[in-house]
Predict the structure.
Amino acid sequence: MKNIVLIGMPGCGKTTIGKLLAEKIHERFCDMDEYIEEKTKKSIPEIFKEGEESFRVIERKAVEEISKQSSMVISTGGGVVKSFINIENLKRNGRIIFINRDIENIVADIDTSNRPLVKAGKEKLYKLYEERIDLYKKYCDAEVINDATLEKVIEEIVNKLEI
């Protein structure tokens, strides 16, 4: 089976949905941020202290490594779509699902304190949304709206991918 790759804004539910989806379809789960932290022995905020570009270089390498595997549900970081190389690698052996959650719901729920790019405040989320929404829509193979129960969102993913 090809990988199922979840993309979307920080706080849209990629990790939570990814874990539950992997469990439901009996596949492995990989959270890209956790993978990066394990490989570098640093937290994402620590890596970002060296600059966003440093993080993006590490992220590209992680995407390259992970995308060579198969039969996995992968939760990516929100900015993975900023690099077309990442998308090429992820699509080579995977199908990309955009988890689209209303930005107002994300802003209401998200804890920005542990998210480097939005640590400055929730206003930054609106800016990131404007920068990324078209990329998410452009690069995904299917879009799922996260406005229902997690079970319904997972069911919709399964149906769209015909798993």
